[in-house]
Amino acid sequence: MNRNSQKWGELPTLVLGQIYEYLEPRDRLNASLACKHWRSVLFQKRFFTNFKLKLHVDNDRQCKFFRHTLHHLTSELIIIFDFLNVFHIEKIRRILYKIARCDNLQGLRFQTNSVGLVPPGDISEESLVDIEHRPQELKALTLASIKYDPSHYPMFSMENTLLQKCSTLQVLSLDYDTLTEELLHAIEILPLKKFLISVHGLDRHHRGISERAWSEFSANFNNIELIVSLIYAFEAVEVLQVRILRQNMPITHLRVLFCDYMNVEALEWMSINNNNTLKSIQWIDSAYKHSDKNIMDLFLRSGQDPFVMMSWRCKNLEEIVIHGYVLDPHNIVGISRLRGRTLKRLEVSMIDSTPTEASMDSFIEEINTLLGQKWEPLNLNNVHPALGYLPVPDDVRDEYVFDLIRRDISN
């Protein structure tokens, strides 16, 4: 018995690797538990396609195993830590140095109990550039975060000269709290192609950005993508057109993510004032909170569906995504007639079911013809759980938001 076990344990690595290729991931993992040799064969890139890992910094055993074995196999890494713990920060420093030259890593995210990697106060040169020793070669810098409590979180300021050293920077993301007119002016020397702004709460001391500052910014960036995302911004969404949006703001994409409110006035304001630049709008909430809200009930004050008006006024509009609100199929047809094949994406999941099935089929057929592509509303049983009729844990909703933001950064 022992001799047979010893023979199995002496299978050549090449042979064992070929056997592993025939196994499902779970079976491959179970087989690797047989002995130390079988386990060592498991850790090859071909067996770790799109491998995502949540690394808990307070788990010394997991961190050690990651640094020694998994660092070159992970395609997406989430580092969970306490940013007020100096020992955690030192561990993260070692982890970052370990993965700095890994060509397999495509995504890196920090998850903490507060605002982010950098403690409150100024973002210093040492805290950012220490990770990237050649800022002049940096192409993308993503400093925006997700605030889990948009009403209470520490504030920090950005050192303008730090960004100016990133002389080849093409993609930049920041929290709106960090944005000042001085910073906006400072980055005008950069070759930015994409600028992402995340809005959470609105600090009463934030002065906002003036029309003059956005006008100067627009003059320097004729073709920039300016993506504004409101994330769990329950208060900011209600004053979006008053406190944040500006007529000279060259906004191309608006994302309103789980803010629990449809601001009709903001939609109307944008369709009038930002009609030359707006390309995409996504207004997303969960169906379980808003399934009783027919979107038409929200538009009675204006008398017009603002998405229809937006489709008419915004000549560059290419994408409309609406989840969490019931839409009138007549208005979806109206949007399709106005935008036609220039509308590359029209995504909705809740439609008024008053029309008969035959009428709905007729609506869908006309929309297909107008858009020049196969179209139908998404089935809520098949969408991401964060959009569905059942409540989900916060981390499920967060993952949906993170994926959307990552796509905006990388596309």
TrEMBL record:
GO biological-process terms attached to the record: positive regulation of protein ubiquitination
Cross-referenced Pfam families: F-box-like
All copies of domain F-box, residue ranges: 5-51
InterPro entries registered for this protein in UniProt: F-box-like_dom_sf, F-box_dom, LRR_dom_sf
Domain of life: Eukaryota
SUPFAM superfamilies recorded: F-box domain (SSF81383), RNI-like (SSF52047)
PANTHER family per the UniProt record, alphabetical: F-BOX ONLY PROTEIN 33
Protein name: F-box domain-containing protein
